[in-house]
Structure formats: structure tokens, C-alpha cells
Amino acid sequence: MRVSAVVVCLVLAVAGLYADERRADARRPETVKAPQRDGSSLTPGDKPAWEWTTEERLARRFDPISILDRFERATAEGLMGRQQSEQSGSGPKVQRSAESRPIGNVVLGSHNPELFFPFELFPYLVRAGFAGDESERQQNRERFAPLIAEFSEPGQFWRALEVAVEPYLVNQREEENLGAKLDGATSQEQREVIRREIATTQAPQCALRQEALAAAVKSIGLKNIYRLLYEGVAPGLSTIAREGELDPSRIKFIAGGCK
User: Whole-model pTM above 0.85?
Assistant: First the structure.
């Protein structure tokens, strides 16, 4: 499972989970402070991102002014691609006006980690920590080590997490193996069979993911897991959901394990 530069897809990802950059030291990543601007994600009561409630995240994520602010920022930073620049007709910056309607709901983890939901971040922690390639797995774990060391010995943490997420992890590896088989399929008939197997494997993933997250929280602690998600994972992720593809009711449904 590739995590470096992996693309997060709620609907369409616009940045990788981890940019391929190295720092000379292994200092602890700083908590991202929300930008102080109109409509931006000011943390209620200056709470850190991991402490936001579901309702607080929903209110800000779907606030029209915040949506426009985040879209403008993403466009200005070149994350929306050529299509959005062409639509704006004025270079990368989308001008604020009645006509400058954002085409999607953007979340930039580097600026607004608090707008992600735990279920969106958790899969990337699991993929990073249990990547199939040993060197990649070690590299990913080293990235998280400064944060983990604040509450646990890193090796102990990963062993506890592996136990907590085992059913979900087994499912993820089954899908990965099927994906490899699909890549090697030599006939349309084989591909169709494998696609059906993949669909069957994916069917329980929503519930398995939420059960794994709950088990991790119970075993390791909510503060520890959530801080790792929001300070270690979120800053490297960005997403855009097109209008109508993800709404508050859908998010609540997924957050509840699709039940």
C-alpha cells in the first residue's frame, strides 16, 4: 500500500497523504493553527482540531462563506488544476463575486485539519503504519514517532493498534491483493470476476472501519488517537467533494459505520 504521495479520495483528491519531502531533523510536527480570516475555520474557543465536535465540523465545513474561502485558497495555491483556472478566466485566483461560485467543497488539511472527520483520516494512519513494503512502513512510522512518543513507546503503540484494527486490516489487504490480481488479469472475463470479488470485499468496509476506530480509541485512548490523526495525518491531506456528492447527512451516516 503506497502512502507517500497517496491520493485521498472522498470524491476527488487534490493532494497526497504525505508529500515526498524530508526534514533534516525529526522534530514534532506543530499543531496547525487555523488561519484568521473571514469565513475561515477559526477554532471554537481555540480548541485544537482533534477536540472539535461533529456538529462543529459540519457547521464550518458546509458554511457557504467558509466553502468559498477554502476554494479560493486552493485555487490560489494551484491545487484546483487547469480546469478551475480556465473556468475562472483570470488566472489561478478566483475573484469573490456573485459569479465566483465554488465548484466543490475543498478541505485543505494544511490549513483546516479540524474540518476532516476521524473516519476520513483513520484509513491513512492504518495504511501508513502497516504498509506492505517494509522500508516504506518504517519510513511512515518514523514520521509519526515524535507524536506517538508523547504518550507511548512507538513499537508498543503499533502492536496495540494492529490488534485493535485486525479485521479491518485483513479486509484492506484482501482488497489490495485483488487489485493486484485485477492488474494482471488477461481477459475481460477474468476482470469482471475480480471486480465482483472486490465489490464483495468493499461492502463491509464502512462498518469495519468504524469498528476499528472505536477499538483503537478504546485500547489507546481517544485523545492519543485523535491527536495523531489531526496533527500527524490531516496536514498532509486535501480533498474536494463536488456539489451534491457529500452532504451532512451522508457524513453522519458514514461516521456511524453506514448503519
Answer: no
- Please give the residue range of the domain that contains residue 107: 12-17+45-255
Q: 242 lies in a domain?
A: yes
Encode the chain (259 residues) as per-residue pLDDT tens digits: 444 333 333 333 333 333 333 333 333 333 334 344 433 445 566 799 999 999 999 999 999 999 999 999 988 888 765 334 333 333 333 334 444 567 789 999 999 999 999 999 999 999 999 999 999 999 999 999 999 999 999 999 999 999 999 999 999 999 999 999 999 999 999 999 999 999 999 999 999 999 999 999 999 999 999 999 999 999 999 999 987 788 999 999 999 999 9
For residue 156, being part of any structural domain is answered with yes
- Candidates 98, 99, 104, 60; CA nearest to 79 is 104
In a domain, 211, yes or no: yes
In a domain, 235, yes or no: yes
Q: How many domains does the chain have?
A: 1
